[in-house]
Amino acid sequence: MKITFTVNNENVEVDVKPNETLLDVLRDKLFLTGAKEGCGNGECGACTVIYNGRPVNSCLILAPEADGSVIETVEGLTKDNKLHPVQEAFVEANAFQCGYCTPGFIMSTKAMLEKIPNPTKEVIVERLAGNLCRCTGYTVILDAVKIAAQKMGGAK
Ligand code: FES
Ligand code: FES
Q1: What number does the ligand 2 atom closest to the CA of 99 have?
Q2: Could you tell me the pLDDT band of residue 153, with boundaries at 50, 70 and 90?
């Protein structure tokens, strides 16, 4: 079946199978490989994209459900060769080691800061609880989120 949706401000039409996931479509059909497959069943957050304004695990969305949706992936954040403030913050805080989890954290952080510009540590921990990192120990990720909030005009 054919579905159409908007990804990173571009309209796309894709032929999908009923049992394919949105993550499969993004990676294998649109070659947007920023979203990663970690667990494949909703437990790690490596596949997080922003779907109709909310961060979701794209491995849990069947492709036909994405028909008519508006999706942002990490590839859409860099504009005119300039990193998004959340990306800059992760670089400044050295908030990654292997980097496998990073696109998911960045998309969850962006979605959070657009709704909650100045989150407390407790809110950050709660909102990013679905994103797992097996390398960093999370402290530098919390630092990155605080820097991102400042860059986006929230926390001072
Ligand atoms: S790959 Fe989707 S939550 Fe782990
Ligand atoms: S940096 Fe390796 S999993 Fe997070």
Answers
A1: 1
A2: confident
